[in-house]
Design goal:
alpha/beta; Rossmann fold; 6 helices; globular
């Protein structure tokens, strides 16, 4: 399969691209690099599908997990555009551009307990997962739509100076994306765990 991995320069994205490259042709897309896409910019998503043709699957790992204060208008607007609306726009464009029987995998997330700055992210994640479940029944031409909802990634926690034991290793997270792409699930949210 020919697979676009969006966010391929990030911790999760690079692990997903590496895992998929073992058996597939992977096009690594990110805000910077040879194949560029910005999930905050719908025109950039359109340009990606105009540039990269004959695609079987697309995986979005570029969704920000940033904590957003409840009273922050700018962070709320940027996060709404990129993580939620950007992924929804991508799905709407992918269904016109993927080969029959292709796969779309989105990224939601998990907040295991309420936390300061987590209300916006929890809302967006729940929205993405509901969208995945319900939009899956509308997929044309045998296309599949799934999402992966990783919690904290061990390597991300470590880079933040926090205890990596509270997260899931990125290699395990990547396996959930591979399963979503290579399997036959439809409308599901995968939860990576050891």
């Amino acid at each position: 399969m020919k697979i676009i991995v969006i966010g391929a320069s990030g911790t999760i994205g690079s692990a997903v691209a590496d895992a998929l490259e073992k058996n597939h042709e992977v096009v690594r897309a990110a805000r910077r690099g040879p194949v560029r896409v910005d999930m905050d910019d719908n025109a950039s998503i359109d340009a990606l599908f105009e540039t990269v043709r004959d695609v079987d699957a697309v995986v979005v790992t570029a969704a920000s997990g940033k904590l957003t204060p409840l009273d922050s208008d700018d962070d709320f607007t940027r996060g709404l555009q990129g993580k939620l609306l950007g992924q929804l726009h991508l799905v709407r464009r992918a269904i016109r551009n993927l080969r029959d029987g292709g796969s779309i995998t989105l990224t939601s997330g998990v907040f295991e307990r309420p936390m300061v700055g987590g209300s916006f992210g929890a809302m967006v994640n729940a929205g993405l997962e509901a969208f995945t479940e319900h939009a899956a029944v509308e997929m044309p031409r045998g296309l599949r739509l799934n999402s992966v909802g990783p919690g904290w990634v061990a390597e991300t926690l470590e880079s933040m100076g926090l205890d990596p034991a509270d997260g899931t290793p990125v290699s395990i997270v990547a396996r959930s994306y591979v399963e979503a792409v290579e399997g036959n699930a439809q409308g599901q949210t995968f939860r990576p765990h050891e």
